[in-house]
């Protein structure tokens, strides 16, 4: 597989397969190849849209954010006190300048009360802080031991930025702070990448969606966990649908969704009711990744689905059914794909030393829940493929190479959403 090839490029012979052939003749992809393929199978992020500030939260900027005005757009007072003109003492003049006012110019050796954030009158040479002055019989006196600094406690126009100045690069996530900066810079709407839509299909007759596990059936852990995790990557999850272990039901569900990305759980292996490969073959899907050399979660897959009726490209990420294995699938395939589609900038994985030797698999990469200490990464307990207890206490997933990581060796880290 060539993970850097665009999605439409023909695959090397024998590497990109139809689901039918893959079902019986899988050659597992390395973790790094699979992770890169998920990122690069989308040639570009989704198109830009103009959202109101409130609706842009969580999206990624589609263009650099440039200031529409100087910030501040006029000289403002940094303190409550008096705007003064020239050396003191000063004759007090006027009732005071409040935020939002349009003050008259100051004559030399006069002063006017002023509030923090109010526009500084023309002719003012400084702002005298309230605690450093004394007003007596219409005259203002300086009480501080040092003279006023020229332009002291005045925030000059353009101190933060000038009109046209680039504030943030494209790909920046729109956080609450970004919304505040954009509003201050004059924006009512932001150009952001459309968030990819996701439909989650939960496959399996054994899943219960309420109450205690019973009669050989287990509670569905992925239905509550996956949507917020996928939303953290920039996606918009439209719904979670349980699907019974029936080929026809799975085929109908795949035919009914027009989501940018379909995420399935379970049915990725070759068990008696694992129908995902067959359903994908009948739908005309094209596999990009089918089984990854990673533990837990090696029977995961990534496929191109036939285009939506409006021509949009669509993809499917098949996650294993075991909870921690599904988490590995999200980190390996779903997260890099969705962040790319959402337009978020790709950041290199941070690294840390192994505080102790980290156990690995003899041949596969291992995604290991770890605690981060001042000395580095240490394994978290309860790390079996069906367990989530260790993940809830972990600070990250360590990407442990085949054979394990020796103490003090540096390992890459994948974030765990909080």
TrEMBL record:
InterPro entries: MoaB/Mog-like_dom_sf, MoaB/Mog_dom, MoeA-like, MoeA_C_domain_IV, MoeA_C_domain_IV_sf, MoeA_linker/N, MoeA_linker/N_sf. It comes from Streptomyces polyrhachis. Residues 1-35 are annotated as: Disordered. Keywords: Magnesium, Metal-binding, Molybdenum, Molybdenum cofactor biosynthesis, Transferase. Pathway: Cofactor biosynthesis; molybdopterin biosynthesis. Its cofactor is Mg(2+). Its EC number is 2.10.1.1. It catalyses: adenylyl-molybdopterin + molybdate = Mo-molybdopterin + AMP + H(+). Residues 1-16 have a biased composition (Low complexity). SMART domains: MoCF_biosynth. Residues 199-340 form the MoaB/Mog domain. It holds the Pfam family MoeA_C. Belongs to the MoeA family. This is Molybdopterin molybdenumtransferase. It comes from the Bacteria. Catalyzes the insertion of molybdate into adenylated molybdopterin with the concomitant release of AMP.
């Amino acid at each position: 597989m060539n993970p850097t090839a665009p999605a439409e490029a023909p695959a090397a012979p024998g590497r990109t397969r139809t689901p039918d052939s893959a079902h019986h003749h899988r050659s597992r992809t390395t973790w790094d190849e699979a992770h890169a393929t998920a990122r690069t199978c989308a040639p570009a992020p989704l198109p830009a849209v103009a959202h109101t500030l409130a609706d842009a939260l969580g999206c990624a900027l589609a263009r650099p954010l440039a200031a529409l005005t100087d910030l501040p757009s006029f000289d403002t007072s940094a303190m409550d006190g008096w705007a003064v003109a020239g050396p003191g003492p000063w004759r007090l003049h006027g009732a005071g300048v409040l935020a939002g006012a349009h003050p008259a110019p100051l004559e030399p050796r006069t002063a006017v009360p002023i509030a923090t954030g109010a526009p500084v009158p023309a002719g003012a040479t400084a702002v005298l802080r309230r605690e450093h002055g004394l007003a007596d019989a219409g005259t203002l006196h300086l009480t501080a031991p040092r003279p006023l600094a020229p332009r002291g406690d005045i925030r000059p126009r353009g101190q933060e930025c000038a009109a046209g100045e680039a504030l943030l690069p494209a790909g920046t996530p729109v956080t609450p702070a970004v919304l505040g900066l954009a509003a201050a810079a004059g924006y009512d709407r932001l150009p952001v990448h459309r968030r990819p839509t996701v439909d989650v299909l939960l496959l399996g007759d054994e899943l219960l969606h309420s109450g205690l596990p019973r009669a050989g059936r287990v509670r569905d852990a992925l239905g509550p966990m996956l949507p917020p995790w996928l939303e953290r990557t920039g996606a918009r999850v439209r719904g979670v649908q349980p699907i019974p272990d029936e080929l026809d039901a799975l085929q109908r569900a795949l035919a009914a969704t027009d989501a940018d990305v379909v995420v399935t759980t379970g049915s990725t292996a070759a068990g008696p009711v694992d129908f995902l490969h067959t359903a994908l073959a009948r739908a005309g899907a094209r596999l990009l990744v089918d089984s990854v050399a990673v533990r837990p979660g090696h029977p995961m897959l990534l496929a191109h689905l036939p285009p939506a009726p409006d021509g949009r490209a669509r993809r499917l990420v098949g996650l294993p059914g075991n909870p921690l294995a599904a988490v590995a699938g999200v980190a390996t395939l779903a997260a890099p794909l969705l962040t790319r589609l959402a337009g978020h900038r790709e950041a290199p994985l941070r690294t840390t030393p192994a505080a102790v030797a980290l156990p690995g698999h003899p041949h596969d990469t291992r995604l290991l829940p770890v605690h981060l200490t001042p000395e580095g990464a240490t394994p978290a307990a309860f790390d079996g493929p069906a367990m989530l207890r260790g993940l809830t206490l972990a600070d990250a997933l360590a990407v442990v190479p085949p054979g394990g990581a020796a103490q003090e060796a540096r390992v890459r880290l994948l974030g765990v959403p909080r």
